[in-house]
Design a protein that fits this description.
Elements: H1 2-27, E1 31-32, E2 38-45, E3 52-59, E4 62-73, E5 76-85, E6 91-97, E7 103-110, E8 113-121, E9 128-134, E10 142-147, E11 153-160, E12 163-164, E13 166-171, E14 177-184, E15 187-188, E16 190-195, E17 201-208, E18 211-220, E19 223-229
Antiparallel strand pairs: 1-2, 2-3, 3-4, 4-5, 5-6, 6-7, 7-8, 8-9, 9-10, 10-11, 11-12, 11-13, 13-14, 14-15, 14-16, 16-17, 17-18, 18-19
């Protein structure tokens, strides 16, 4: 009888201990520090569901370590992004993931801004779709390269502060140059050449602030067919 009472007490203490652990664990999630800032492990769920929207850890209001973000698919949480935060600044290494679990893109974010090099991947393969660079303001800056599914280069364009600037080249899927252009402040400006899929010249001339300017030559079968003068003229004949 005494032994049975001892066992009953031990069992009761075990249940009490486990309940305390569970309550403590539940209470340790979604906590605020003394300044009202998020601290420790946080979990958020989609409204009126038991499906996670995000999970991660805060250090007195700052995200640290790894955060997982989810979308709802068929009423179930599906991983859509992983962010690994730098403890010393606002930068995070980010990966965006499709609902099928395929990597869409990866790079660095500063808060909500893209920064540095970003790589995007083909929809139906692990091949690279494009590689581009963003400045500290989250705008495209420098060279951007776009690839065909076969791995050949489709475009090489240049940006400055989010606008087209400098040389831009477009290629056919066979690797043949089909456009050779110059941009200035997001407008076509300078010499331009267009080619057919076999690399035979179709037209060449000059742009000025987005409009054709001066003499343009047009070709057929690689031979000059006609030339047109696109020089702008004043609408007021007295000023010509």
């Amino acid at each position: 009888m005494i032994k049975q009472n001892i066992m009953s007490r031990l069992f009761f203490m075990f249940i009490l201990t486990m309940s305390s652990i569970v309550l403590y664990a539940q209470g340790s999630v979604n906590q605020l520090d003394e300044d009202g800032k998020r601290h420790g492990v946080w979990e958020k769920y989609f409204d009126k569901t038991d499906q996670l929207r995000y999970e991660g850890k805060f250090d007195h209001g700052k995200e640290i370590d790894t955060f997982n973000f989810y979308t709802l698919k068929n009423k179930k949480s599906v991983l859509s992004a992983v962010k690994v935060f730098n403890p010393n600044n606002n930068l995070a290494s980010v990966k965006f993931i499709s609902s099928r679990g395929k990597l869409i893109s990866e790079g660095t974010m500063n808060g909500r801004l893209y920064t540095g090099k970003w790589t995007y991947y083909q929809n139906k393969s692990a091949g690279v779709l494009s590689a581009e660079t963003y400045n500290d303001q989250g705008k495209l800056d420098g060279e951007k390269i776009v690839y065909y599914p076969n791995g050949k280069t489709a475009e090489i364009v240049n940006y400055k502060d989010g606008k087209f600037e400098g040389i831009s080249k477009w290629y056919s899927e066979r690797g043949t140059l089909i456009k050779d252009l110059l941009y200035s402040n997001d407008e076509l400006h300078g010499l331009a050449k267009y080619y057919d899929a076999d690399g035979i010249i179709l037209a060449e001339g000059e742009y000025q602030h987005g409009r054709k300017h001066k003499i343009w030559n047009y070709y057929e079968g690689g031979k000059l067919k006609e030339s047109k003068d696109h020089t702008r003229r004043s609408k007021n004949p007295k000023k010509q």
